[in-house]
Request: fold
Amino acid sequence: MQKHNRFVVAKLILRSGRVRLFVCLAGLWLASCCGFAQTATNRPPFEFTSQPVLLENKECYRVIWSTTQFGSAKVVVKQKDGSQQAFSDATDGVGDFQTRIHRVDVPKTLLETAGATYCVSSRRTIDTSRYGYQMGEEIVSAPHAVTVQRPQDNIAFLVISDVQGGAKLARKALERVDEPYNFVLLLGDFSNDYNSADDYIEPLLGLAYQATKGAMPCLYVSGNHEIKGTWSRLTNQIFPTPSPDNQRYFTYSFGSLFITALFLGDDHSDDMPRYSGLSEFDAYKDRQFDWLAKTVLPKQEWKQFRYNIAAVHIPLIRADGELTVNHFCKECNKAHGYKLPEFAAAFNDTIKPQLMVSAHTHQAQLVSEPSLCFPNLQTGGHLGRTKFYHTSLVRCLNGAISYTVYDSNGTKTPHQIPLKK
Reply:
């Protein structure tokens, strides 16, 4: 009898255990359903954090914008006759749904057609961890029209650089610009380092859209801070140049203006301990000079243009008038001007630009050095991040070049550049 009772009790316990297991599983299912419903209604807002910006990218414009959460990317171009074409960021059969910074390449000819408009859109990414994709709501921008003019004279470009925490003051300076221009030169160092999407959004995309309204192109020239941070290697992937092989050095023409752009790496030598032996900018300078000597100099394309300018973030002439190649760096305990004499000679003896446009020093001033036939315009940047920002607008008109400095205090200062014969 006692044995029978023990058997009955054990059977009841087993049965009740199964019931509890069923109840637990049912509870988990209900919780997951309720949780999904709550997630659907309580997800963070899915919104644009920057509107579309056009980056020069060979025969295309790269349209770049950003959102608060991960999402897809699409650009729809609508022509005057009502016809439409859609473009996505799918380069290998599928798009990038795990990003907040979206980029789509669109042929220039379509965007620059008279009467054409374009919109950008993104759909929220919910889940891409299994087969297929679960996407959420879609947001669509207002229509934008590209109004690019490439005149043979009276060409102007606005320079933005060296923001590095001073985005609010940079916005104030850009608000003061009261004269027309044709494109924006993004001359590097928008953040101190790049460790998240936010380091690109406000100081770069936000300011670029404020300056262009998505209607004119931006030309990107890298600065030395673009190599810093965990996201730094993505900079080259997101922001293109007109280089045919996607390098950071290139030539570019706009109307009657010809630009030769260089990227000289960091302002320290490769053997700095902080680089742990991974920096190879001397080799990159060798490649640039090889390109300059074998591709640019023999073609002499600049001779076909009325205006001839060089653009490089780190200037060949420092703010104090000293040649960068001769500057002694206390951190490196030596000068670190590798290859700079060769670059200077190529520009000085053959290309002979009317002006070199630079950034890096955070000064807005024109400097010259007797050994060089061209002056070096240092276009501005922040001074104290939360204290002051200034930037320059360069204009080519009637065979002469001038620049105007705009600052966050509301001051506008025009300057004429004396061109050396």
